[in-house]
Amino acid sequence: MVCSIEFRQLQSFVVLAEELHFGRAADRLDITQPALSKQILVLEKAVGVQLFFRTKRTVTLTHAGQTFLHQARQLLLQRDQAILLTRRTGDGEIGQLSIGFTKTATQTVLPQLLRQFVQRYPEVDLDLRELATEAQVTALNQDNIDVAFLHPPIDQRGLQLQIILAESFVAVLPPQHPFVHLDAIPLEAFANEPLIVHPRREGPILYDGFQQVCQRAGFQPNIIKESITLQTRLCLVAAGLGITFVSDRLQALVGTNVVCRPIQDCPIQLEFGAAWRQNAANPVLQNFLELLVGKNDV
């Protein structure tokens, strides 16, 4: 048989069990003694057993009442914990945040941003996923990540985009390449060079933009290989198979087996920004965005 018990009845029972005096217990609960007596009687009826021995002079717990006291305290504690947990979840102090990112993020805003966020919200579970830009857009639209650090332009339908920075590209050369002696490489110098680039499917707008600036310079780029991973492209360059390009901030990641040189009057820039769903309701994300916005003065 299911009995109906209210939390206020449990609270009254626990206070009376602690005071063993109806007057003092009623004062603590800020109710009248008759109201307290009625609550206890209703509770005993719901439980189906007597919880207190009562005389004109004394109030004591029955054996069943002693057992019920422990359980009542646990229920009240669980109630308080549930309320606190729910409030903290609603405030974004606990929960989960899934973050997609490219390598540029690791060399710019992400490390410090994560450090500040963890210090402020240590109980949030962070899920970090290194993904290419287009994969991040797909993950956002499928609700698989909450925020993406990626390279625009992107399909922004349903998304909010905040540009963080824009930077030029540099050429990454084999150490023995004659271009390493140049202070800056003219774009038209790449006309007859084998090029290793990021796949079009992972950034079609940027890929097509590169094709267009090459065509305006009077040549069709000789793309011999496409690879999604920077390390693969760098390995191919180090082997002398061609030239690749990285953003200026990623020069620190290329290692000592290749050489970077700037592109003269670089006609194309790599933008970097953060994106999230316009209808995102995760309160943890809102707290993260407050830090991001404050950090970038946007």
UniProtKB/TrEMBL annotation:
Key words of the record: DNA-binding, Transcription, Transcription regulation
InterPro entries: LysR_HTH_N, LysR_subst-bd, WH-like_DNA-bd_sf, WH_DNA-bd_sf
A Pfam family the protein falls into: LysR_substrate
Residues of the HTH lysR-type domain: 5-62
Molecular-function GO term, any one: DNA-binding transcription factor activity
Family as reported in the entry's similarity comment: Belongs to the LysR transcriptional regulatory family.
Protein name in UniProt: Transcriptional regulator, LysR family
Species for this entry: Acaryochloris marina (strain MBIC 11017)
